[in-house]
Design brief:
This protein is mostly beta strands. It has no helices and eleven strands. The strands form two sheets. Strands 1, 3, 5, 6, 8 and 10 form a six-stranded mixed beta sheet that branches. Strand 5 and strand 6 form a beta hairpin.
Length: 111
């Protein structure tokens, strides 16, 4: 699995096995990441991870789909928009794109 660091929110076509490091959330303010997965007729599996610093190991994170915000999951296989609490954490997404051109977009939300 390759680590791919994304320095700004972007639209990324995901194929193969990659860990997309989406960025850090500001520890001084409540923050979330909005993550959109669009399979575009393709197939992919993905899992959400966080860590508190680069020296610590990645841990599975619970994200909540906007369509059913009371039902969280640590991974998924369908197109959806997810919200992930990222206050004081670095966020990554492990993606295995197997067909088509699945796309990942994200946006850090600080407020």
């Amino acid at each position: 699995m390759a680590d791919v660091t994304l320095s700004t929110p972007a639209l990324v076509t995901t194929m193969g096995n990659n860990r997309y490091i989406l960025g850090d959330a500001d520890s001084g303010r409540a923050s979330q990441f909005a993550i959109q997965i669009d399979l575009n007729g393709g197939a992919a599996t993905y899992a959400f991870y966080v860590r508190v610093s680069p020296e610590t190991a990645w841990a599975a994170a619970m994200a909540y789909p906007v369509s059913t915000p009371t039902t969280g999951a640590t991974s998924g296989t369908t197109s959806n928009v997810w919200m992930l609490d990222a206050s004081g954490k670095q966020v990554s997404l492990d993606v295995s794109g197997t067909s088509g051109s699945p796309q990942l977009t994200y946006l850090p939300l600080v407020g």
